[in-house]
């Protein structure tokens, strides 16, 4: 959200991270109903000197909304949205402004299906959205709707969609058992639980002081700004994974420790990975789950699936990490060179 001279509040869908050829929106609201003179917003959208779209919309007391479909791009490209607000009676300009919009290609999941060929992928997703995006990408998988669907199978990858787990007794046990047996288990944000994979879920509000291990394979092609803006989306509904002191897990997106010093301390994290038995566990409590229209979510999904093809190695405790180690992992664009050991 962008505040403009205390006159307007302008909200870009997906924080201004858009997919090419997919309609996106810009919502305009008066900062205060008492400060809402009859006015219109004149806008244009383009790249450098090239204007691709423009328009004019009246800003009523309930605000206004604009829909824009960005063009096809081959690489992430920055576009500009410019506007000016004019009074309807005397045409006087009240304010002007602009915003940067990053447009990404829609092919973020290209090639993943081929790399997963021959792998057994299971999706447990209450909403069905995760399964739908995999179908669109041609990624073969089996969809289940209950933990019983995990019986008598040996999956290579298990994806658990957001808010799929209900907290029922023994619901998580089959998932953890599969990870110990060699599966790559990826669980997206759960907000209805008090514990996840044995860890306490702690309510915390993401801030600009979040730390991200940017050279980890799970964050390939994602920027700090993209991760920060997305992580703040859930606000007070965010549930962090609380890692006990000196836990053998790698925090990838996390809050800075409250106390100074080098001694291991509990860590609250939004993104965690760890080797578990013969397999691997990834917990993502950041709201990276808008796969249909948010390029950040699609990129992260691609990264998690690529990461599932890498070798799971023992995860060192914080006290065991090498001096100067920043990530605990070697990286590649496909995220398939190594696991989590430094």
Features:
mainly beta; Rossmann fold; 5 helices; 2 domains; Immunoglobulin-like; 342 residues; disordered C terminus; globular
The CATH level-2 architecture of the largest domain is identified as: 3-Layer(aba) Sandwich
* Major pleated sheet: 11 strands, mixed
Oligomer: single chain
Tally the structural domains. 2
The radius of gyration is 22 Å
CATH class of the largest domain: Alpha Beta
Strand content: 25-35%
Helix content: 10-25%
**Separation of the first and last Cα atoms:** 38 Å
Number of beta-strand segments? 20
Shape: globular
Q: Give the H and E element order.
A: EEEEEEEEEHEHEEHEEEEHEEEEH
Question: Any overview of this molecule?
Answer:
The chain is mainly beta and 342 residues long. It folds into 2 domains: 2-104, Immunoglobulin-like (Sandwich), CATH 2.60.40.2550; 112-320, Rossmann fold, CATH 3.40.50.880. Helices cover 12% and strands 34% of the residues. The chain contains 5 helices and 20 strands. It has helices spanning 112-115, 129-136, 173-181, 224-231, 295-307, and strands spanning 2-4, 8-12, 17-19, 24-30, 39-47, 50-59, 64-68, 77-87, 93-104, 121-124, 142-144, 157-160, 184-187, 195-196, 199-203, 211-212, 239-243, 250-254, 267-276, 279-284. Strands 10, 11, 12, 13, 14, 15, 16, 17, 18, 19 and 20 form an 11-stranded mixed sheet that branches. The longest helix is centred in the last third of the chain and has 13 residues, at 295-307. The two termini are 38 Å apart.
